[in-house]
TrEMBL record:
Organism: Thioalkalicoccus limnaeus
Gene expressing this chain: proC
Main location: cytoplasm
Catalytic activity: L-proline + NAD(+) = (S)-1-pyrroline-5-carboxylate + NADH + 2 H(+); L-proline + NADP(+) = (S)-1-pyrroline-5-carboxylate + NADPH + 2 H(+)
PANTHER family in alphabetical order: PYRROLINE-5-CARBOXYLATE REDUCTASE (PTHR11645), PYRROLINE-5-CARBOXYLATE REDUCTASE 3 (PTHR11645:SF0)
Entries under Pfam families matching the protein: F420_oxidored, P5CR_dimer
Identification of the protein by name: Pyrroline-5-carboxylate reductase
A GO MF term: pyrroline-5-carboxylate reductase activity
Keywords: Amino-acid biosynthesis, Cytoplasm, NADP, Oxidoreductase, Proline biosynthesis
Family: Belongs to the pyrroline-5-carboxylate reductase family.
Amino acid sequence: MKHAHIAFIGGGNMATSLIAGLVADGYEPQRLIVSDPVPATLAGLRGRFGIRTVADNASALREADTLVLCVKPQVAASVCRDLAPAISERIGLVISVMAGVRETAIQRWLGAAIPIVRAMPNTPAMLQAGAIGLHASDHVSAVQRNEAETILRAVGMVRWMTDEDQMDAVTAISGSGPAYFFLLMESLERAGVALGLTAEDARLLTIQTALGAARMAIEGGDPPDVLRARVTSPGGTTEAALKVFATAGFGDLVARAATAARERAGQLSDHLTEQS
């Protein structure tokens, strides 16, 4: 894996996060190359990581074994079509972090039967704390799966999906999920202020509580329902609050929200796939 040359098409936040994680893991910077149309982006990446950069996509592919597509979904079709003439047998694997772009569309645009791994990271990946869903096309070997997992593990936890349609559910749960937690934190902050706390105290108490709860869930090994029961004393304050959530149908509301996100993810994927 550490001998592969990896070409990143697009030098935005996700490419930067992946490069940062790989370099921190000991990957040789000169085996990483990025193409991006913005000179300042390339200069920043060169200065920060010591990697190679080019202004045109075809040049990035000349020595690459693995191609990582990090462009916006709206330009996926045009970028892939432009790359098609430069795709050679040397490129053994394509990894796509383009949200909602299906493997069949990437294959069609690249014009080559090439192994593809789709990745759905979320924004905490920028802090190497992401939750990433992966799906491999039929032609991806065990070695290539391991390579893709190694690259994406540089920015967080990875889980493999057996069916590509599950990537829409990944989008609904972890892709959009940070916003759900931010909404709860925002609401708790407002409630704290309404109950007499200063805005700063309400914010810091909320953030630290969210961090502590997440750490308990990750490090303790117990599922959330067990953790919730453990901190809920009969007749206590937590029980009083949870009864309000239950009466309002909090669980059903979360399920409806996640379903709406999954359905929208499918609609967006259908639209992108239909691009000629």
